[in-house]
Amino acid sequence: MYKLPVFQSAKLFLISFGFVYRANFLALVMGVFFGFLMSRGGATTYDYHAKMFLLIDFQLMQVIGTAVVVAMIGVFLLKKYHVRAITTGAEVDFVKKPYTQGLITGAFLFGIGWAMTASCPGTVPAMIGEGKIGAVFVLAGLLLGTMAFGVLQTYIAQDGKIQQACELGNHPVNKTDIK
């Protein structure tokens, strides 16, 4: 087998590594930058969340409002100029999702969770990065809630019938066996 010199081999490895993982690296850099901005804006501070929900201080509401306006302008410009994604080169597409039953209930539960934990799901990784221990429990609750939603959605999609998704041994379970 032909072996390259060490420096040339390392250079080729780094180039190929960068090419393969460029999307992940870009996402990491953007996530760290976004977390820094959230931290600087006060979005990772429990007191700002509590004061916002108690209608005492509106600094966090101003940060959220500014983010909404910037996002609206950004989406408008992306649509107008048919911008392509950095990593894939595909045109950025915005597909409207249809209204689904339970959206209002889900939004209500989301708001209750936000008010109870004083942290939005988007701020939890930044809070963990800041070393706030309470955010670890919020993350655990988020993961459990997401799992519960998936299980409940599957249950509802099957008309409330409990279906066994796995096979027992090598024999598939007959639907007549499940009651």
Question: Could you give a quick summary of the protein structure above?
Answer:
The chain has 179 residues and is mainly α. The protein has seven helices and no strands. The protein folds into three domains: 41 residues; 53 residues, no CATH class; 62 residues.
SSE topology:
Blueprint: H1 6-20, H2 22-41, H3 46-53, H4 59-81, H5 103-117, H6 124-130, H7 134-157
Helix pairs in contact: 2-6, 6-7
Description:
With 179 residues, this protein is an all-alpha fold. The protein folds into three domains: 1-41; 44-96, no CATH class; 100-161. It has helices at 6-20, 22-41, 46-53, 59-81, 103-117, 124-130, 134-157. Helix 2 packs across helix 6 and helix 6 (124-130) packs antiparallel against helix 7 (134-157). Residues 164-174 have low confidence and may be disordered.
Structural class: mainly alpha
Q: Calculate the terminal CA-CA distance, rounded to whole Å.
A: 62 Å
Low-confidence stretches: 164-174
- Helix run count: 7
Note the main sheet.
none
What percent of residues are in strands? Answer: under 5%
Helix and strand run:
HHHHHHH
* Helix share bin: 55-70%
Mean pLDDT: 82
Number of strands: 0
The quaternary state of the protein chains shown equals single chain
Looking at this protein, list some descriptive labels.
179 residues; 3 domains; mainly alpha; single chain
